[in-house]
Specification:
Keywords: Transferase. InterPro entries: CoA-transferase_III_domain, CoA-Trfase_fam_III, CoA-Trfase_III_dom3_sf, CoA-Trfase_III_dom_1_sf. There is one protein chain. With 426 residues, the protein is α/β, with parallel strands linked by helices. It folds into two domains: 284 residues, 3-Layer(aba) Sandwich (Rossmann fold); 88 residues, formyl-coa transferase, domain 3 (2-Layer Sandwich). The strands form four sheets. A six-stranded parallel beta sheet has the order 5-2-1-6-7-8, sandwiched between helices. A three-stranded antiparallel beta sheet has the order 9-10-11, covered by helices on one side. A two-stranded antiparallel sheet has the order 3-4. Strand 9 and strand 10 form a beta hairpin. The relative contact order is 0.15. The mean pLDDT is 94.
Length: 426
Amino acid sequence: MTLPADPQPPAHAAETPGALAGVRVLDLSRVLAGPWCTQTLADLGADVIKIERPPGQRHPGGDDTRGWGPPFLKDRDGHDTAEAAYYLGANRNKRSVTVDIATPAGQALIRRLAAQCDVFVENYKVGDMARYGLDATTLLQLNPRLVYCSVTGFGQTGPYRERAGYDYAIQGLGGLMSITGERDDLPGGGPQKVGVAVADLFTGMYATVAILAALRHRDATGQGQAIDMALLDTQVAMLANMGANYLASEVTPRRAGNAHQNIVPYQVFEAADGHLILAVGNDSQFAKFCDVAGLPHLAADPRFAKNADRVRHRDTLVPLLAGTMRGRSKHDWLSALEAAKVPCGAINDLAEVFSDPHVLARGMVSQVPHPHTDALRLVASPMKLSATPPTVRRPPPLLGQHTDEVLAEFGLDAAACQALRDEGAI
């Protein structure tokens, strides 16, 4: 099957080599945590080769997220393609190569590629890579400079290591849902997941940091290493102040809705025409807020003057503020509070986010050409580097789009590729 060549990249994409130019990543990860990591590496200039399952009788092939829609990317005629928005959001700047790693020829091909790569990322279940001869021990013997990163739900060790790991279950098991959602004694109370797969995303970002650290070590010593990333470990780590609160007090925190466990007032309030966020972070800001609200006596009240006292008297203070907040519009509050330098914010839906002048000014929406459309819009990388900024050099690839191109770079000619196709390996 002949696939289209890459469309011309944006003019700015070739201006400056990325910070990771020259780093080659072999990416055997799927869905979100692994692809989020490798997309970040790709944004920074690494050459990421995404290995995907070829189409077969029982599977359409490729990363499962290609089919996780609607919505799907629309082509130039306005028709849905096979590229789900979910997939597009985690796979820019990569090249797609189809390899069936369940075949001996496919396994041998992956070993050949790994011998010439800097980084290997996989998120298969514990033991799968060893069965294929693609585990860290095997590949590090083949390429001692390789940085091998495994991403699993529970890690390579421990009693849960063989369990499959899914973000939703990890948010529950790792404690996040016990502190997310409205209070149990209020309407709508109960456990709530976060609106995006934060355990996956954080694991992808921690994996990126670990890989960069391992590359630094490799460049200094010549020695590669294995990295064992687990969603549950990451979820426990990202409990942050809530985890620290428990370890310091052994008091189990409960859900607090939109309120903050350690700061008051730091929550959503209802205004006359909607809701806004008030995020008072210190006593000085509380005094400024009280002036804006026409409640200067509250800042002098010993029950509320210090944050620790406001936390202790939360149930008295918040209803007093809530009544006042409902007396003015969102715009009035936001304008007055911003002028007084009291932290506050609107609660935007995504249409408002992606039309916000500041979001647009910061370049958080990028438009790139794609084989199916001239106007693929993607969320941009948030990293702003002055000398080596991230760029979008390639749109998310079609399935197998770069198979022949990449294999040729590793020394396989057209005849060798055809032989692999005949064996069902690619």
